Amino acid sequence: MANSHVHPDEIRTRFSRAMSDMYRTEVPQYGTLMELVADVNKETLDRDPELRESLVRHDELDRLSVERHGAIRLGTTQELYNIRRVFAVMGMFPVGYYDLSVAGIPVHATAFRPVDDRALSRNPFRVFTSLLRLELIEDTSLRAEAAEILSKRQIFTARALALVDQAEGTGGLGESEADEFVKEALETFRWHSDATVTLAAYKRLHDAHRLIADVVSFRGPHINHLTPRTLDIDSIQANMPKRGIVPKAVIEGPPRRKCAILLRQTSFKALEETINFLPDSQSNSSGTHTARFGEIEQRGVALTPKGRKLYDQLLLSVRSGVQVASSGGNSGDYNSRLVETFQQFPDDWSDLRKQELAFFRYSVTRKGELEATRDLAKTNLEDLIARGYIRFDPITYEDFLPVSAAGIFQSNLGTDAQQNYAEKSNREAFEEGLRATVQDELELYAEAEQRSLADALKALGNPISDGAAV
Ligand code: OOG
Ligand code: NI
Asked: Which residue among 135, 230, 367, 438 sits deepest, i.e. has the most Cβ atoms within 10 Å of its Cβ?
């Protein structure tokens, strides 16, 4: 019956569309942002035909308008395990381990995303998924109270779990089940204005850390933002206030450059929402909570381990020199230091490739297709590129950055959230909860590069096995 199964890429596309529609009705500013992003992307493409061509060449233009990521925060390892199963039905798998406790945020995380080239170009929808680390709450009775509350909730509908079982058992879902699955899975991500705790309990959790209150007090892990991809984040940052949106003080990540690297992100506080808490004798049952925000990102080339090391080093030197206050004080200094420091990072595609700082996708040019002859088989890669038979394009970074993520968390949690945790990063515990290992993002990019190179050389009749071309 395999033929009657809906492809996971298609289920993911339907799900990400349903999620976007839901978020648009729940958070009106998201709709405004989507319009701004569409306008800026169009202007950028009109202005930069080379960029358009490069996006077309690698099937990225079509995915741009549907591209987004979201984020959720889970409370228990059982929830983490089941969300992995839910995402697997949509062709999304855990990639990367992010420890945010180093930045005073008591969570660790992974990103669920498609991994192969085809699936990425079809729809690269990703969800940054963090798990609360209750062991980082110092107050043992509060820790026990939080664990007790979390142990009672079920964030998935019974039908969603039954459909996951079915997909695992039979290898997929049929047409009507796929639609039903999308509808049922969406329930896990929905906002609930009814809390599962009293206002007094909420305040206790909130005092330990705002994030703990956000995870523990509700029936489910509401999606807290949905981020479209822009081609010009500086223009978005500058134009947001004109549409009534106030962005955070600085853009996270690398500075603006000719050759975009990794990921640049900015966010804004979206909503303060009225919550109905459980009634009790001492406290009023109505209060507010801020969880949901908006974010925009611009993606650039994926860096090799060597490139990433240089990036981390340069960013650290900027951040230890200038601290941006949450009020935005110093943001001018920060930006100029960032630009100045990153002058040490080559800003030319050819240099980035030759110095092995970034990953590229190789392909045969039109000339290569027309003129492939036997003697090309002995030509090395550099000559093939120089003579115009093979071209290279940047491989887009599909993941997240822990320092940026911490900045996004913090700006939306407010100023008082900075804390230091003694506990170390605990990838093993995370993977144990997940009951799977997370894939290494750097390996995925290296494989994609190698595959593209092997395919290109093969198309030119170049025998890759004897290593002549590399
Ligand atoms: C997730 C923050 C991280 C990003 O884009 O780096 C993130 C959260 O606030 O739950 O989404
Ligand atoms: Ni985000």
From this structure: 230
